[in-house]
C-alpha cells in the first residue's frame, strides 16, 4: 500500500577551503574563474541562507557536512612524507594542482554525492544509496568514502536504509550521482520512474559521444546503479544526453533538465532522442500524465541556458500542490532567460512561482541551486528513523551561522592552500561541526 512520503533536500554545507582552481575541464565556469580569490565565508552563508529560506517555506531541508580538506591522507598516498606542514609545502612546490585538488570544497555539490532510490521503487522496499565514484575528476574522486560514511551515519537503520559502496572508480563506470538521475512520479510515495541520463556508452565505441568535452556518466554505470537498487524495468528509463550539449558545456544533465512529480522541465537540446525519452517515461508513469515543459533554443539559446543555469534550479512541490522554481540570481541577469521566466509563470502551467537565490560563490565554480542539494524521498516512518540532528530549523541555522562566522576566512587564494594554519583551522572547525550535527567521527583526522 502506498505510504505518504516527502521529498527532503540535503544541501552541502560549503567547506572552509572553497576556492577557484579551474579543476573541471568541460565545466565552463570552473575554467573561466581559475585563480580568482574566493570568499569561503560568503559562500557558506549564501548556502545557509538558501537552506533557511526553503526550510522556512515548509520544505524538509537537511545538511550534508563538508569533507576534511586539504586531505593529507591522499597526499601521503601520492608519496608525500613528513609532518602535515612538510607535506603541504612539498606538494605546493612540486605540484600545486595536486594540492588544489585535495583542497577543493567540491563535496558542496551534493547532487553529485549519491544516487538515491526511494523505497517505493526498490525491490526490498528500502531507500537505497550509492555514493558516486566521481571518477572523471581527481579532486572529486576522493569524495565518495566520506560521503558514504556521512550518509550511513544519517540513515543508519538497516530496516529502512540500504547503503552500497561506490562503483569501481574507472572511466567505464563513471558515475556522477543524482545530477544525472531524475525521478518522476504521481505522489512521492507512489512507485515512480527513475530517469537515468548518461553521456556515453563505455563499451561501444561506435555509439554517439561528445567530441570536445568528456562525458562523465556512462550507461554502464547507470545500469549498475539500477541493478544494485533493485529497480525493475518498469521503474527505470535510460536515456542519452545530447552529445552536442555536453560539448557546449552541459557537463551534467542537471544543467539542462530538472524533473519533479509528473513535470519534466528541459531544454530542446537536452536529449539525443527526446520523443523516446518522453514515451518511455510516460509508459511507466502509471496514474499520471507526464507534463513536459520544454524550452526551445529560439526562446533560450543553449549558451544562455548554460551561463544562467536556468535548468540547475530546484523544482519543488509547495503545500498547495503547485510548483516553485528556485533559480540562481544569474537567471535575472540574462535577458532571454528572465523574459522566459516571466512567461513561464504567466502562462498558467504547473510552475506557478519563481524564487531567486544568490549562490554566486558556488556558481563561479559551475554549481547552481540544484547542484547544491541531494534529494531523498522519505516516507513518514523513514523520516522518523533518520538522524534528525542534520535537519534545518531556526536554532540550527543560528548555530551554523555563528560557526561559519567564527571559523571561515573571507578570502582564499591558491597560495593560501599551502598554509598549515588553514589545515588546523579546518580540522578545528570540522571537529566542532560533527558535534553540532551529532554525526560521530566521520573524518580521517578523527579516527
Ligand atoms: N551540476 C552539478 N550537479 N554539479 C556541479 C559541480 C561543479 C563542480 N565544479 C568543480 O569541481 C570546480 C572546482 C574548481 O575548479 O575549483 C564539478 O565540475 O564537478
Automatic annotation (TrEMBL):
<keyword id="KW-0378">Hydrolase</keyword>
<feature type="binding site">
    <location>
        <begin position="21"/>
        <end position="30"/>
    </location>
    <ligand>
        <name>substrate</name>
    </ligand>
</feature>
<dbReference type="InterPro" id="IPR037031">
    <property type="entry name" value="AstB_sf"/>
</dbReference>
<feature type="active site">
    <location>
        <position position="252"/>
    </location>
</feature>
<comment type="function">
    <text>Catalyzes the hydrolysis of N(2)-succinylarginine into N(2)-succinylornithine, ammonia and CO(2).</text>
</comment>
<feature type="binding site">
    <location>
        <position position="254"/>
    </location>
    <ligand>
        <name>substrate</name>
    </ligand>
</feature>
<comment type="subunit">
    <text>Homodimer.</text>
</comment>
<feature type="binding site">
    <location>
        <position position="365"/>
    </location>
    <ligand>
        <name>substrate</name>
    </ligand>
</feature>
<feature type="binding site">
    <location>
        <position position="216"/>
    </location>
    <ligand>
        <name>substrate</name>
    </ligand>
</feature>
<comment type="pathway">
    <text>Amino-acid degradation; L-arginine degradation via AST pathway; L-glutamate and succinate from L-arginine: step 2/5.</text>
</comment>
<feature type="active site" description="Nucleophile">
    <location>
        <position position="371"/>
    </location>
</feature>
<feature type="binding site">
    <location>
        <begin position="139"/>
        <end position="140"/>
    </location>
    <ligand>
        <name>substrate</name>
    </ligand>
</feature>
<protein>
    <recommendedName>
        <fullName>N-succinylarginine dihydrolase</fullName>
        <ecNumber>3.5.3.23</ecNumber>
    </recommendedName>
</protein>
<dbReference type="InterPro" id="IPR007079">
    <property type="entry name" value="SuccinylArg_d-Hdrlase_AstB"/>
</dbReference>
<dbReference type="GO" id="GO:0009015">
    <property type="term" value="F:N-succinylarginine dihydrolase activity"/>
</dbReference>
<dbReference type="Pfam" id="PF04996">
    <property type="entry name" value="AstB"/>
</dbReference>
<feature type="active site">
    <location>
        <position position="176"/>
    </location>
</feature>
<comment type="similarity">
    <text>Belongs to the succinylarginine dihydrolase family.</text>
</comment>
<keyword id="KW-0056">Arginine metabolism</keyword>
<feature type="binding site">
    <location>
        <position position="112"/>
    </location>
    <ligand>
        <name>substrate</name>
    </ligand>
</feature>
